[in-house]
Amino acid sequence: MSHDAAIADFHEAFSRVRQEVAKVFVGHESILDGTLTALFAGGNVLLEGVPGLGKTLLVRTLGDVLDLSFSRIQFTPDLMPADILGTNLVVEDEQGRRRFQFQHGPIFAHLVLADEVNRATPKTQSALLEAMQEKQVTAGGSVRKLEEPFFVLATQNPIDQEGTYPLPEAQLDRFFFKLLVGYPSAAELNEVLSRTTGGEAARPEKVLSGDRLRQLQRVARQVLVADHVQDYAARLVLATHPKTATAIPMVNQFLRFGASPRGAQTLILAGKVRALTQGRFNLSFEDIQWALTPALRHRLILNFEAEAEGISTDAILQSVLTEVPADLAAAA
Q1: Within this chain, do residues 137 and 206 fall inside the same structural domain, yes or no?
Q2: Which are the contacts of 327, defined by CB distance < 8 A and separation ≥ 6?
Q3: Which of 59, 177, 300, 317 could form a Cys-Cys staple with 113, CB 3.0–4.6 A?
Q4: Of 214, 244, 274, which closes a domain?
């Protein structure tokens, strides 16, 4: 398949999924684009926002649009790792002989909604770590591969912190994007009311199978990356490392730790997906810049001074974008 044909094919599939989800999920176009970008890149997503903004609805609608198995896990303080992964049960056959049989948990699905993930204990949250990165589960004394494609889309509420457990940095780093879901505009809110308080709700169609999605993910990885564009992504990530020669002043002042190599990988992969949606088979500086904030905002660790002054990771990343030149030759 030629590059032009691959671009057209990818763009059509991406647009079709987006169109079907938009039948139910109103507004929040940047959130929808970010979620679909992570999906087509093969990454997990953390959606953060106050209750009632449609985070769960977005993920459930994706489950309706994709011809994939879907499961929802409601995280609560009493949830145990076995409730997610599964456990060995004693079963009896027709001859009365007993044996152990593994009962699969809800993690064994293509698309997993981890609702209010910060309400479960760290022990239970850690049950997701191996699945999110290695696409496998160690349970019942065996390593069990998860069927791909596999995605975790988690939600959390940033304001109700009583009885919650913040996700550890190791787990946050396994999320491809962290997307902040804000309030709808007046026009969007009116559209929500019209759709949800009137007649029969719209029903999205299933438009993409697992095999087809894996094929499109392979196409995205083939997008060309010039050396100077890849170097730009690396320099952006290195600029977030405090007390190093590459750090910018704001990073040295307000950060304890910067982004990991996973952050640089995310910039490249997300940029490749965006390039295809923009009709290009090569990565550009603009693709990297578009992906920077959702890719790195959860990978930076603020120091006490930043928290005391109310400095956000988003503000630091905007400073990184401003101070790190895209074209070194032009900057020189």
Answers
A1: yes
A2: 228, 285
A3: 59
A4: 214
Instruction: Count structural domains, the chain.
Output: 2
| 29-57 pLDDT, tens digit each | 999 999 999 999 999 999 998 888 888 88
Structural domain includes residue 145:
yes
Q: Are residues 117 and 181 in the same domain?
A: yes
Q: What is the pTM of this model?
A: 0.91
Q: What is the pLDDT of residues 251-297, one digit of tens each?
A: 999 999 999 999 999 999 999 999 999 999 999 999 999 999 999 99
Q: Which range marks the domain in which residue 201 is found?
A: 3-80+107-214
